[in-house]
Structures are given as C-alpha cells and as structure tokens.
Amino acid sequence: xxEQRPVHPLRTVSGPLEAARVRGPVLAHEHLALxxxxxxxxxxxxxxxxxxxxxxxxxxxxxxxxxxxxVELTCRGMGRDVAALVRISRESGVAxxxxxxxxxxxxxxxxxxxxxxxxxxxxxxxxxxxxIDGTGVRPGVIGEAGSHGDxxxxxxxxxxxxxxxxAKSTGLPVATHxxxxxxxxxQLELLTGAGLEPHRVSIGHxxxxxxxxxxxxxxxxxxxxxxxxxxxxxxxxxDARLRLLLALLEAGHxxxxxxxxxxxxxxxxxxxxxxxxxxxxxxxxxxxxxxGADDALIDLLTRRNPLRFLTGGTSDDEEL
Length: 320
What we know:
Blueprint lengths: L9 E3 L2 E3 L8 E5 L3 E2 L9 E2 L4 H15 L3 E4 L9 H11 L2 E6 L16 H14 L10 E7 L6 H17 L3 E5 L5 H10 L7 E3 L8 H10 L2 E4 L10 H13 L6 E3 L19 H12 L4 H17 L9
Parallel strand pairs: 3-6, 6-7, 7-8, 8-9, 9-10, 10-11, 11-12
Antiparallel strand pairs: 1-2, 4-5
Helix pairs in contact: 1-2, 3-4, 4-5
C-alpha cells in the first residue's frame, strides 16, 4: 500500500524549491513558532510577541552567513503556526520547511490516543498531500517525531510507526526527538522495521548523549546523527559536543551529521540574552575549524547533508 519514493524538489512554506538553489547553510532542527506551555513551562513559547525578533535574527544570519534554509520541526501538538512561518520566511528572506507528525507522548493532542496505526498514517498522508489546516502549505519533513526513554511507549510506537508508513508513502524523511538523546537505537529499529530506509531518518538530540559508540552505531546503520542542540550548555557543554562530533568525524561518518541549535523558547533569542539561532555559526563552527575542519567539511555538515536528508539522496553525487 505504501511505496517509498523520493521528494524533489524541497517543499517549503512558500512553495517548491530546488535543492541546488540553496547555496548557503541549513539549520536542520529549529523552532520559529511553537507553544509547549501545556507541559508546565510557560517560557517554552515562541508566538506573535516574538515573531519580529525571530525574523530579525534569521535576516541577519542570511546577510552575515548566507543562511539558506531552516527546517522547522514544530509538529502536531506543539503549537505549530503555519501562517506565522509563512510571514517569517517572507520577511526574513530565508526558506522554511515545516514538519508534521507527533512529538513525544506528553504532548500528543486529544484524539491521538485510541487511534490505530492506519488511522494515524492517513492523518499524516492527508496533511502531507493536501496541506496543513486548509492553508495549502505542505510539510517537507515528518518531525520531530518523538519518544522518551530508552524505548518508545506504547502510544509512541503507534505514532512512530505511522510516521514511517507516511514517509514511505509520500517520500518525506523522518526527523526524531530522542528525549535527552536517549532511545535513538530503538527509534531507528522501529522505523526501519516498518520499512523505512535508514538514510531517510535523522535521530535527534544525539549531542545530549555522551556515548560515541551509539553515535557510531547509528551512523554505521545509515541514519543521520543530529547534533542539534548546539549552545544549550545548561544540558551539555559545547566542549563535550565538540569532542563527540570530532569522534564521529574521525570514525569516518562526516556524511551522517546534521547540525542545529533547537531554539525552543523565547529566552534563547538573542534579544532576550540567549545564544540565538546564530550560535552554530558564530561560536561552534569557528571552534570546529580550529580543530581542523576545512571549508568543504563545513559545507558538507551544514548544507549538503541536510539537503540530501530532505530530498532522499543516497550519495553526494547530486548537484548540491
């Protein structure tokens, strides 16, 4: 019933975009508009009060670093606001890809529990093919599809399986949320067990897991390993992130790495004293260069890898 097929071109909130036209870096896991306050934290919000600051940050990064694309992984139950994303993209001049799917169980919206895999899959396929909430804007990624703990809960098994089936049907990739970096191998086993090829999967938040062996395991299986909370030193220091990233690069897996900052509350914005969306470019990448990374490697990590992930490519042979 569900045949896997690649997605070309990229699906952005402003319409189709050929990957070859993205010449600058990509932020592979960000949030530009979300509301996670239902989880008990009123600061886990980016709404209309912050839209100007978000837009200004992206515009400045486009001017300074050539930022070409943001992968926005606010999905169902996370306060997704497609109209806001369209405005932010238009006003900043930065292309935005929007996600669909279900975050981890705590944030599943009403009606998710009790639905079977077939029903959940059809919900995603309808949204991917027909657009979100009548806007006509079509998701370009399934994510961040979540679980918490070393293995998904029963409900998370259903939503992750639906994500895999919808990905096979529509050609979209799946980007996961692995709570504090845990559970990545179980996520990958579930998704590939449902028939999704590993190169269509990005396992999230692996820079929060101080286990280079797990990172190598995921990359060797063919999945992307997301170091996507760069700058969140209240969780893990950037020193540790750099050490773990260098270990993965030295193991020969540079083509499996995705990088981003996962800005997920207004306190992370530079206007609020936070590190902002640009921390990757202004702080972390210079340190990676000092450790020996050249321009070609930086381009691989920040542009070619995420574009290959989004379009389903299996090698760097495509004109990216």
